[in-house]
Design a protein that fits this description.
Blueprint lengths: L10 E13 L2 E14 L7 E6 L2 E5 L5 E5 L2 E7 L3 E5 L5 H15 L6 E2 L1 H5 L5
Parallel strand pairs: 7-8
Antiparallel strand pairs: 1-2, 3-4, 4-5, 5-6, 6-7
């Protein structure tokens, strides 16, 4: 059993796993031997946050996180499935947005590419 105690810690090392858990208002991503934490305020609503110019992060109540570049959802972290990115080639700038978001949140940009529709339907209400 893996026990993680977070006391103002952003990264600690542990045994290799690959999953995410919620712990006292923190999302704990266990990525290989790296643990990345992010404080999350859980509500029943969607959280929309502009993270940079032409880049928006959408967080759904179920824990899904979606990167929107300009007006198009292009990458996501889906609970129970993991990280994905669009297989569609939009532009060099959008590719940079995707890579930067994945590296900042996951540690690297090497994730499965999925059909654009798979990401679109995450926010198609």
């Amino acid at each position: 059993m893996l026990v993680v105690i977070i006391v103002y810690t952003l990264e600690v090392r542990c045994q290799p796993f690959d999953r995410s858990v919620m712990l006292m208002g923190w999302r704990v991503d266990i990525l290989g031997d790296l643990i990345h934490t992010k404080q999350v305020h859980q509500t029943n609503a969607m959280i929309i946050q502009q993270i940079a110019s032409n880049q928006t992060e959408v967080m759904l109540a179920d824990g899904t996180e979606i990167l929107v570049s300009y007006t198009t959802p292009v990458a996501a972290r889906i609970p129970g499935r993991g990280w994905v990115r669009t297989s569609h080639k939009w532009s060099a700038t959008t590719t940079k947005h995707i890579n930067k978001w994945l590296i900042n949140n996951r540690g690297d940009a090497n994730v499965p590419a999925v059909d654009q529709w798979e990401i679109d339907k995450l926010i198609a209400f």
